Amino acid sequence: MTRLIAVLLPWAALLFLVVPAASASTIEATASQTVVPGPKPGVKRILYKFGPVTIAPGQNTIEFEGNELKPDVPGHILRFKPDLTYVDGEVPRVDVIHLHHAVWVSNFRPLFAAGEEKTIFNAPDGYGWVYKPQDNWIMNHMIHNLTPTPTKVFITYEIDFTEAGTPADAGVKDLHTLWSDVEAGKIYPVFDVHKGQGGRDRRYTYPQESPTAMRARRDQLTIDQDGVLVGTAGHLHPGGLWTDLKLTRDGRTVRLFRSKAKYFEPAGAVSWDVAMTATPETWRVGVKKGDVLSVSATYDTRRASWYESMGIMITAFNPGGTGPDPFATNVDVPGRVTHGHLRENRNHGGAFGGLPDARRLLAAPPAQSRTVPIRGFLYGQGDLGLTGRKGRPPTIRPGQTVRFVNRDAKRNIFHTITSCKAPCNGATGIAYPLANGPVRFDSGNLGFGPEGRTAAAQRISWKTPRSIRPGTYTYFCRVHPFMRGAFRVARARG
What we know:
Layout: H1 2-18, E1 32-37, E2 44-55, E3 63-66, E4 75-86, E5 97-106, E6 109-114, E7 121-122, E8 127-131, E9 137-145, E10 151-163, E11 173-181, E12 191-193, E13 203-206, H2 211-216, E14 220-222, E15 227-236, E16 240-249, E17 252-263, E18 274-278, E19 285-287, E20 292-300, E21 306-309, E22 311-319, E23 336-337, E24 371-375, E25 378-379, E26 395-396, E27 403-406, E28 418-420, E29 461-463, E30 471-476, E31 484-489
Parallel strand pairs: 8-11, 24-27, 26-31
Antiparallel strand pairs: 1-2, 2-10, 3-9, 4-7, 4-8, 4-10, 5-6, 5-9, 11-22, 12-21, 13-20, 14-20, 15-19, 15-22, 16-17, 16-20, 17-18, 18-23, 24-25, 27-29, 28-30, 30-31
């Protein structure tokens, strides 16, 4: 599979660079496994608990760790169910501890992956992901602590497994994972989606609507041998509507499957309270050597901006298998969600949170408020959680700027200044606050971090735009959304 390996080679190169750095591991030696009978005779259901992983206050970086939590005999993986728990087994609320993503890497190639939507991967009957004990597994994880308090968690994954040579494993056909990513080859494959971006329908499709991304075409993957695709599902972030998987052959392109985001969130497509649709049990697509798979992600931009977004589709491939020709048979059928509403998504936010309405506060004198330090998870001037003079919004004249400086950066903590619609003072939840200010501004992640493993801006300061008109502007920290603040642009003296 020479060409396919060439496409995924950046993963291997990057892993070789970063895995040694994980010697100062955050993993303690208490990782474990539990084995119980599976749903069918001869199938084992194995629960692995990777960790505990110590999550620092405000942590938001990608880590790589060696992972020996896997079967000790060859066979096939028939099902994969991911999750995240505290050490006591409780699943953390998503607005507190956040599984941004985890990727189970096998032999330097992605095997399974999970985001906060926690899609369950089920192989169709008669198929399974081929596994050998000598496979080199690595855990790539990005767990986001939205609080100022350190904690410990387990990354858990439950697999259904058949052992080679047993009756249950007889005749099971080998599956391999094809990884289709709109930003393939990057350790942190993200892109930004801005409010109002896209066409009249306010939907933005990446990479098709990004000239820069279309020049790079990281979304394409070339198949180098005949076979059959037997299943796929997409990964999106809040605001995402669907991912599309397409196939191109001899200049013709056809859509294979649209993985839709099913939002349980009452407010709509604005939170992690979502499940993605996967292909039905009978879905099959015959592919040929030289076929090109491509993926796109579509986001709703009517209500908010979405920073550090993703668009990924994980596809199960049986080399040498056969299936219907997608140019002769319509394979683009409706999908099914792999789970319902998750209990950890119950705190939606937005109710009265006890913070003031910044529009009704007195302003801080202009001479005292041109620089705002961020320290201890507080904006030093104009933080809505402060009282007295420190809680007054810093004031500037038209054409002037407020400069923010992240003093927490020395503790490896990122902060942002991201516009939100006033009063932006409701209780924090998975659907609140949003990056929906009438004037869009965002500082990026103020702080420093390893290139490619974070979204760090590699600077600690940022200034508000000079072009902002008079008014009171509210903002929040995307990394720690309980942080809220405001500044004011006074009217010009006349």
